[in-house]
Amino acid sequence: MTPPPELRQLCSELENREIKRSVFLKRCVRLVASELECSRAGIWMFEGGNEGRRLTCLAMFDRARARSTNVPAESGPQVATYFAALENSGFVVADDARGHPATAGFFEDHLNVSGVRSLLAVAFSVNGRLYGAFTCTQVGGTSKWTHQQLAALRAIAGRVSLAIANAERHESDTQPALLGNDSAR
Residue 109 half-sphere exposure, CB side, CA atoms within 13 Å? Predict the structure, then answer.
């Protein structure tokens, strides 16, 4: 499966430095939400080591509200469990996110209030290192994620991670700032 033409164009714009990182990330999650017809789509980055792993949301688009939304960072043992699942298989398919071993820990506290019922996540790497995950969630009711949706999200993650790696190669400083900060542009 190949990513949609709009996403390929967006990646090209990032690689050619025609758009800022923040614009790229926001447009990317909007395209993912539309392409996979999910309630919300997000890009999350892992930070820290095994003992103190943290998930930071770089961009989230809420399709029902037709707008970007801010999501707090996640930390705690549930992040390590989720990371391990992504590292082992490259994806998490949680039709019932509250009962899935990799995602249930997120719903013990505040996420239960958000209405998320199903989650599809695909890991992405930059220069061979697991960097984060693309997520699609269903709010209000569960969703039976299809093989086509998983394949589409994997294709998107593959193309986007390539664009990120290519853009990072063009960065003049040595820090992997592409996902972290946008102040360079």
Answer: 9
> Would you state the structure tokens that stand for residue 118, as one six-digit string?
């199903």
pLDDT band at 112 (very low <50, low <70, confident <90, very high): low
HSE (side-chain half, CA atoms, 13 Å) at 49: 1
Q: Return the HEC string of 38-84.
A: CCEEEEEEEECCCCCCEEEEEEEEECCCCEECCCCCEECHHHHHHHH
> What are the angstrom distances between the C-alpha of 133 and each of 19, 59, 129?
22, 11, 12
| Inter-residue contact 39 to 137 (CB < 8 Å) | yes
Residue 2: DSSP 8-state: -
Question: Is residue 177 within a helix (H) or strand (E), and if so which, with residue range?
Answer: helix 177-180
Output the pTM of the full model. Answer: 0.86
SS3 86: helix
Closest alpha carbon to 89 in 119, 120, 122:
122
Q: Angle between the 21-36 and 147-170 helix axes, to the nearest 10 degrees?
A: 170
Residue 63's pLDDT is 94
Domains of the chain: 5-180 (3.30.450.40)
Phi-psi region of 55 (alpha: psi -120 to 50; beta: other; left: phi over 0): beta
